[in-house]
């Protein structure tokens, strides 16, 4: 394989398959073997479906073989309640279809795992989602004859992080799976993006689970089918961007601005005008890392954003997992 397609060469930190695919395309235009992509737009909601079919494709974009669905809504941060309801409805339908495509039956028992640290707002997505999903397993255990048709067994847990519990998150989840025996695990986690505009406006669904190094915190041991013994679907939302990425993006915007004003950009920007994006990003990191300044950055309105998008995911999951809930009227079930 042409090593120029290896995402690691670009030294970019992103948990989104869409961004990894975009980065490789920017540097090597043309069709990428082993990676299939389909995109469309529906009234301000942009959907991209990526299927990584080979090891070659996996190495090229730095993502495991599997299916990735990305829902982007650029105006989601405008506090538009009607748009939020539409996004929740779209998410419910896409997730329901995702379950069907991956062979999950309508009666499969589900465990929802909210990963992250509830004390750190950008990392609290998972715990907030678990607070708002409809859990039913105890009804099936205690009073099965009183459960109405159209509901399935759903349980939810927020296992915390290593710094709080002293136990690896995957070990806690593994123990719960062994005791409660779900047919499917849904892991919800906060992610990192390479684009500021995607923070808190993007949802990714993947059937590859949560792997070491992904998410805002490094979970080390993965939460995957190989570890747990049951299929794992990951839902993630980018809530942070690395400072080096912001600096690099700012330099790109400066270059673009000056090129509109003058042709002598080399006299203003010097070597920065001639560097490739990956070279410029590596230079920025070389400057920031020794100073300890390659921070993770999140918007100041993160408290409101995280609640909104967590409610979108929770209400969408409720509709997708329980047939009795009308997926066309998800708003009625939003907390």
TrEMBL record:
SUPFAM superfamilies linked to this entry: HybD-like
Sorted UniProt keywords: Hydrolase, Membrane, Protease, Transmembrane, Transmembrane helix, Zymogen
InterPro entries (UniProt xref): Pept_HybD-like_dom_sf, Peptidase_A25
UniProt subunit comment: Homotetramer.
Modifications the protein undergoes after translation, according to the UniProt entry: Autoproteolytically processed. The inactive tetrameric zymogen termed p46 autoprocesses to a smaller form termed p41, which is active only during spore germination.
Entry protein name: Germination protease
Family as reported in the entry's similarity comment: Belongs to the peptidase A25 family.
Taxon lineage: Bacteria, Bacillati, Bacillota, Bacilli, Bacillales
One Pfam entry name: Peptidase_A25
Catalytic activity: Endopeptidase action with P4 Glu or Asp, P1 preferably Glu > Asp, P1' hydrophobic and P2' Ala
Propeptide: 1-15
Coiled-coil parts of chain: none
Domain of life, source organism: Bacteria
Job of this protein: Initiates the rapid degradation of small, acid-soluble proteins during spore germination.
Enzyme Commission no: 3.4.24.78
Class in the EC hierarchy, top level: hydrolase
Annotated transmembrane regions: 227-247
């Amino acid at each position: 394989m042409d090593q120029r397609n290896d995402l690691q060469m670009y030294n970019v930190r992103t948990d989104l398959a869409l961004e990894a695919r975009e980065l490789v395309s920017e540097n090597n235009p043309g069709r990428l073997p082993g990676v299939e992509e389909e995109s469309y737009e529906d009234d301000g909601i942009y959907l991209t479906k990526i299927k990584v079919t080979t090891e070659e494709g996996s190495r090229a974009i730095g993502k495991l073989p599997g299916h990735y669905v990305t829902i982007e809504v650029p105006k989601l941060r405008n506090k538009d309640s009607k748009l939020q309801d539409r996004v929740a409805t779209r998410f419910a339908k896409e997730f329901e279809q995702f379950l069907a495509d991956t062979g999950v039956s309508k009666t499969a028992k589900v465990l929802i795992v909210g990963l992250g640290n509830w004390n750190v707002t950008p990392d609290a997505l998972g715990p907030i989602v678990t607070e708002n999903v409809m859990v039913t397993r105890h009804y099936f255990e205690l009073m099965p004859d009183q459960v109405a048709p159209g509901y399935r067994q759903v349980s939810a847990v927020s296992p915390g992080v290593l710094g709080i519990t002293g136990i690896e998150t995957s070990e806690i989840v593994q123990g719960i799976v062994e005791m409660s025996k779900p047919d499917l695990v849904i892991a919800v986690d906060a992610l990192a993006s390479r684009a500021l505009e995607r923070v808190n406006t993007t949802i990714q669904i993947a059937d590859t689970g949560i792997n070491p190094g992904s998410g805002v915190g490094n979970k080390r041991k993965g939460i995957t089918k190989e570890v747990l013994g049951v299929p794992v679907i990951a839902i993630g939302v980018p809530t942070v961007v690395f400072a080096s990425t912001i600096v690099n993006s700012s330099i790109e915007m400066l270059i673009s601005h000056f090129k509109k004003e003058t042709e002598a950009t080399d006299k203003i920007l010097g070597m920065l005008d001639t560097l490739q994006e990956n070279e410029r990003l590596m230079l920025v990191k070389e400057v920031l890392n020794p100073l300890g300044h390659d921070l993770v950055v999140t918007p100041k309105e993160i408290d409101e954003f995280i609640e909104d998008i967590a409610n979108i995911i929770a209400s969408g999951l409720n509709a997708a997992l329980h047939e009795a809930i009308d997926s066309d009227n998800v708003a009625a079930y939003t907390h």
